[in-house]
Please model this.
Amino acid sequence: MFTHYVTVALRQFRRHRIFSLINLMGLALGMAAALLIFLYVQFERSYDGFHRQADRIYRVVTDQQTPTNLRRESHTGAGIGPILKSDLPGVEDFVRVWQAPQGLAVGTMKVQEDHSIYADASFLTMFDFPLLKGDAKTALAGPNTVVLSATAARKYFGAEDPMGRSMVQTDGQMLLTVTGVMKDMPGNSQIQADVVVSLPTLLNRQPDWLPQYNVLVCYTYILLKPGVNGQQVQGQLPGLMEKVAGRPMAGSKDWTSLSLEPLKWVYLHSDREAPVKGSAMNVTIFSIIAGFILLIAGINFVNLTTARAVERA
Model:
């Protein structure tokens, strides 16, 4: 039976080549366009989902009221991470990330590195950016240490082993030692960096930033303990901030409050600044367009096939 249907189809195709090509090409192009759109939508919705602990990671954001205006910031003070970990039992760990382009030099080569960040040692254990060389627990623990992506390692050191080699941070004339090489960060990651410098390197130069809670300088991410709900921790934040500020926030003309945003939610849905941002509305619109393309292609195919069937009858 199947062979018979194939024979009939081939016979009709030979007899009505133009009609058959129009019919098949319309359906094929419609399906191809819809498939490409669905791939784009899937990629947009996959941001930061590759982290194994993504469901337990939250970004801490800040609302800061001054006598003149309200600031809604995605940054926090440098002291917020340690405070959350020490005072809230549901918080397992934290990581602070500074985005900071900087000049780097190796020998006679000098580069202005735009994809550069400072980060806590927990950066490589909380997030899944695998190391090809080095120990994830200690690579960023000490001052004056740096982890390079595989691409950056080749750029600065070629085929040579970069481990233990030195780089000069030209902005501050500081010597950095390479303690790790990580895989290039995937394209569906909000955090994009080829150079990760240990945070103690920066804090040794700016020690006054460490205790601050209302000087907003860095992104702060927290890892909740297994079984802890983000809403539970969110409910504890107002009391914690009153304790940190040493006064009640209610009725005050200037105050600082914190909120939590789920990591996988940030890229598409947060209305605050982020290293990389997408649009949930665009994803929805493209999904609807893909559905319409498939529907139109299907209707067109059925109509043409029905017209040919009536002619044959």
